[in-house]
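Thread amino acids onto this structure.
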């Protein structure tokens, strides 16, 4: 049996979690919380399982002084829907039919709390891990036989991978088996060891923290916030990913506005997200920011053989060609691999065209490429006039836009920037129309199209007049 300095209390009635802990030599005290779960449907899958695990522990840990209190919760997610424990055989049947032949996610959240003599928290660790499970197409006889065992009724998603018939349904798993059963053993064991050895110390004072200009100090500051700030503690990669995208666009906006002071601030916000995501990964024992830096350094040296090796490159085009050849040598199967398709579509199109151009697949002149635009315009016009399906019309529209972006690229123009500027120009002008109409004591809804057009032309004339002065 593995020796711990403090009793390990399992705040769960799950016999599977107890068996998993016993399989690595731990003998937990089983003390279910008996709490009624407060499920917040607005949370992400990771946040939800961590929240439920934490609720279990926090309602019980005061009763277990000088202990390690372990809570966990597991959910099954299919097509964005959380599948809990089925309330009936019919509900279990429905769940299993949904999972049949498909891939779903299994999320397990963990919360481990170290308590002092009064049962108060002195240290904790919390994380959520996900594994993906693919089911075989399930025969009705297998589903009915499994339901007849009664086992599906106490398991999220209506199945247990550890059950003989439950395991028979699984074609493939991507991830950790114990996470699917209900407790990620290796991370939990690491957390238990760390918390078991954590000394009880007085609450830290952060009076020494001051704004500084070193990377290490900033890294420490982010780490302190991750531990001490309730909001920072609850965040996951998933919960702040949209904030990262937003900060990136704010950097772009500062660049386009030629505002160095604002750019300095926005780059700081972007750096914060890099450090914050690295800290989250460190909390989950995945990697540290130092490993991020090491990996980046290795990649930069490897992809610049014309600087750090014997390859010769005398112009930017040669560098781009070497860069793509190096990435293919790293194991990528296509030069188009690595383009995030979640970026704005105009940027994606531009990057695709740049990539294929680097290997010679390109138009020689922009005016030759323009002939392709005219061809695509004709096909789109024909699809609309003949009232073909919306899908067909949209397909032709996509070809038109892609071709126009190609011509713009050949002329050295940035389609994404051009469209963003057009959006800003239209917004500015329409707000001018709103101002003129309001100055007349009228509402937009009370104006005719002719009145709105007249105001629009007035705004354009005013802009032209301002440019000439």
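Threaded sequence (469 positions):
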């Amino acid at each position: 049996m593995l020796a711990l300095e403090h009793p390990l209390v399992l705040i769960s009635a799950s016999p599977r979690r107890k068996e998993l802990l016993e399989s690595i030599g731990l003998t937990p005290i089983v003390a279910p919380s008996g709490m009624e779960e407060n499920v917040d449907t607005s949370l992400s899958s990771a946040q939800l399982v961590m929240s439920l695990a934490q609720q279990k522990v926090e309602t019980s840990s005061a009763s277990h002084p000088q202990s390690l209190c372990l809570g966990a919760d597991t959910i099954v997610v299919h097509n964005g829907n959380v599948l809990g424990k089925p309330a009936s055989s019919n509900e279990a049947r429905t769940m299993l039919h949904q999972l049949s032949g498909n891939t779903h996610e299994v999320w397990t959240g963990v919360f481990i709390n170290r308590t002092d003599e009064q049962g108060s928290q002195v240290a904790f660790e919390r994380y959520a891990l996900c594994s993906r499970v693919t089911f075989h197409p399930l025969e009705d006889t297998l589903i009915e036989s499994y339901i007849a065992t009664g086992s599906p009724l106490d398991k999220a998603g209506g199945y247990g991978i550890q059950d003989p018939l439950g395991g028979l349904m699984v074609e493939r798993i991507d991830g950790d088996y114990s996470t699917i059963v209900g407790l990620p053993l290796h991370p939990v064991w690491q957390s238990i060891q760390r918390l078991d050895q954590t000394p009880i110390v007085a609450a830290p004072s952060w009076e020494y923290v001051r704004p500084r200009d070193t990377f290490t100090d900033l890294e420490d500051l982010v780490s302190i916030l991750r531990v001490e700030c309730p909001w920072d503690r609850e965040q996951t990669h998933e919960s702040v990913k949209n904030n990262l995208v937003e900060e990136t666009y704010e950097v772009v906006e500062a660049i386009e506005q030629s505002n160095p002071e604002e750019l300095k601030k926005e780059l700081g916000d972007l750096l914060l997200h890099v450090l914050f995501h690295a800290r989250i990964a460190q909390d989950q024992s995945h990697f540290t920011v130092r490993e991020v830096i090491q990996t980046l350094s290795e990649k930069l040296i490897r992809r610049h053989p014309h600087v750090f090796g014997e390859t010769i490159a005398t112009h930017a085009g040669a560098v781009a060609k070497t860069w793509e050849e190096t990435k293919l040598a790293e194991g990528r199967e296509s030069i188009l691999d690595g383009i995030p398709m979640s970026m704005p579509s105009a940027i994606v199109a531009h990057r695709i065209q740049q990539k294929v151009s680097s290997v010679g697949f390109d138009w020689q002149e922009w005016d030759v490429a323009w002939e392709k635009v005219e061809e695509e315009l004709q096909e789109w016009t024909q699809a609309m006039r003949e009232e073909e399906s919306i899908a067909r019309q949209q397909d032709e529209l996509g070809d038109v836009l892609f071709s126009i972006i190609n011509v713009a690229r050949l002329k050295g123009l940035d389609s994404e920037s051009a469209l963003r500027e057009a959006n800003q120009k239209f917004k500015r002008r329409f707000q001018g129309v709103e101002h003129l109409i309001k100055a007349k004591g009228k509402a937009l809804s009370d104006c005719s199209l002719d009145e709105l057009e007249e105001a629009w032309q007035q705004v354009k004339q005013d802009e032209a007049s301002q440019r000439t002065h």
